[in-house]
Amino acid sequence: RKHNISDATFYLWRKKYAGMDVSDARRLKALEDENAKLKKLLAESMLDVDALKAALNQKY
Question: What does the pLDDT look like over 14-41, one tens digit per residue?
Fold first, then answer.
């Protein structure tokens, strides 16, 4: 509570980052950020494909 986080958050972070060096934690964060960007790109491309399919179906 010293840093205004809940006990649940503290234990979740402790479980996730236990035994890691700072460099490992930074690398994990970088990989998570990259993964989020890739998921966003995939979702956007899937929306584009759906829009193109809908446009093709309306033409014919």
Answer: 998 899 999 999 999 999 999 999 999 9
